[in-house]
# Entry
Amino acid sequence: MARKILAMLIGYIILAVVILPLCITLLLGGFSKDEVKEAKSLVGIDDVFPSELEEYIVGVVSAEMPAAFPEEALKAQAVAARTYQVRKMQEAGTDEVLYEVGQAYCTIEEQKKKWGDHYIEYANKIRKAVKETQGEIMVYEGEPILAVFHAQSAGRTEASENVWTSPLPYLKSVDMERDKEAPNNQVTCTISEKDVWNKLSAYGKLSQKESELSFHIEERSEAGYIQKIQVGGLNLTGKEVREALGLRSANFQVERKGDSFVFVTHGYGHGAGMSQYGASFLAEEGMDYREILCHFYQGISFQNIA
# Structure
């Protein structure tokens, strides 16, 4: 008798815990991605999105922009991130979300570690920004734009052709003077002549010894980013020097001091497209997210793909 009762209890438990949830899941459209499942289980997170794309945008905004920024800046970041992803998906000819396209991404667990006690507050804030722009992308002549962005400019954003050689009509240099107020907009770093010589040697044979190495800036863009610079007989771009030496920006000054070089950089990132700190400043001034985006991306319009 006891065994019969025990068997019945086990049967009820299996029915309640496994079979019924499985049936409900299948009726609602099957199993979703792990991120979506976990989001549904979190207390205090109200908005759960029906698509992996929108959950992905939450992860990108969480990683790419400080959650303390104004809501309109977060919305602008959501639209930019969604537009960038949709363009990359179209280029790849896929309906699947691509996670390795150059955008940072935070999982829910990483968000919890990053925000600690503020997790529920910040997660809700970002999910609200994504929800209120759900499905919205930027287009130019009907096509998703290359919605690149960077942390902060040096007072003006950079034109696309000065970063990637190809001119894009919506990625022009625009004023963002208030970026100079952003934290660490001007940063000084010192790199030994040996490290400079070794790292720049990756671009070719240097004609000067370490102790004789010198820089000669030959051309800057309108926004101040170095276009042409000569180093030890090599003709390089500011972008190449920045990447080789790990500088914050290609907008810099450099001078030799003893056996080291002192670099003073302005801004953070490649400088093209939306400045994230700039978006925050514009939001503080009263612009909504569409006005912010139209400031950084010229001649664009909006489309909803939801």
